[in-house]
Amino acid sequence: MTEEFDYIIAGSGCAGLSLLYRLISNESFQHKKILVIDKDLKNKNDRTWCFWEDGEGFFERLVLKKWHNLIYCTEDLKVDAQLKKYEYKMIRGIDFYEHVLTTAKKFENVVFVRGTLNSIHSTEKQAVVKTSTAEYKAKFAFNSTNINIPKFEKNNTLLQHFEGWVIRLEEPFFDKEKATLMDFSVSQEHGTTFVYVLPITENEALIEYTFFSEAVLDKAKYEAYLSQYLSKILNGRSYDIAHKEFGIVPMSLTNLPVNHPSNRRMINIGTSGGFTRASTGYTFQNIQKKTAEIVAKLEANKFPVPRETFRDKMYQWYDKTFLDVLISKKIGGKEALTHMFKKIEFESILAFLGGESTLKQELSIMNSVPLAPFLGSGIKQMIKFNS
User: Is 0.85 topped by the overall pTM?
Assistant: First the structure.
């Protein structure tokens, strides 16, 4: 038998659950039949989202910690900035999952199915989603799974991979009002490598070691690097590890077939929908902007495909130019970013990385980095865009 719904959300990660929460938070959709399919229960604290935002956001109540001071540093440089416009915020995965799922289960119009998706496709009038045991149809299916996404080419892709530890000390040590966005005073032998230091309290912090490279490392190496780094910054103080998390984000020059007109009832969202910045892996805030746009279009009875503006294409070009520079090893990420942070105001860089910068800010950032390595990559990627 085939069950029919108004909307199907395939995948209950950040994008799928953000869209679900926006739908059930809007009275216009509280009578719509919504199906959410995922093979996982989402009952583990598997990730932490950190992002900057101007004012209160849609998930403000879930923010565990926010900072108004950010630090960028290398062995020879320290930029300690007081933020005026933005706040840097942290949301734990488990808090997000529990809040959205607990809220959604109060709505009789929302159905959850635990299962593995086999296929998603669309006809002219509806989307068809198949699992190993059933078939479902809906006016629209929103897909944040890897279905329909091609494999990334290794020569065109870097992996952002990271391991993070939440550590606790017996005595106060951290300045809980300051977060280190990037500490580049670590070895660059595996490519662009930096560490986040995000104090939650004076005794507790998330320390995350991040690499941009062609391949992930052996598990033991992440632990060794983190232990070595903590030994250095804590001056030998003992600590307990309260939580560990690990992640991999592909950053690719390959253009994803995001939303093809012939498959218009199946809309890709999240990483599958191109919501992840190709040069940084930042996703959370873009998900919020795009899912808000989807809901607004549904409410206006329009096709809910997020628009791609000229500015979106500009940011894609910036991303791919920077990524091409890193992949071709013309210059390291540490050197390029340090040029930026030496010359450009911290919040202008955040605006640029968040897709909210002005053309004037973008020109200043382009002028801050060495011309030779970026010019060739920029021209190369511009030709690809126009081919």
Answer: yes
Q: What average pLDDT values come out for the chain (387 residues) when binned by 10 residues? A: 92 97 97 96 94 96 98 98 97 98 97 93 91 94 85 86 98 97 97 98 98 96 98 96 95 72 82 87 94 97 90 93 95 97 97 95 97 94 83
Token pair 């490279």 is found at 213
Q: How far is CA 30 from the centre of its chain?
A: 28
CB 111 within 8 A of CB 33: yes
If one counts every other C-beta atom within 10 angstroms of the C-beta of residue 282, the result is 21
Per-residue pLDDT, 256:
63
Rounded to whole angstroms, the Cα distance separating 223 from 227 reads 6
Q: How far apart are CA 299 and CA 271, in angstroms?
A: 24
Whole-angstrom distance, CA of residue 373 vs CA of residue 107: 54
Distance CA 131, CA 2 (A): 11
Tokens at 2, concatenated: 């085939």
Complete DSSP assignment for 140-201: EEEE-SSTTPPPPPGGGEEEEEEEEEEEE-SS--S-TTEEEEEE--S--TTSEEEEEEEESS
What separation in angstroms does the CA of 312 have from each of 256, 275, 306, 378?
15, 11, 11, 16
Taken as a whole, the chain contains a residue count of 387
What type of residue is 273?
G
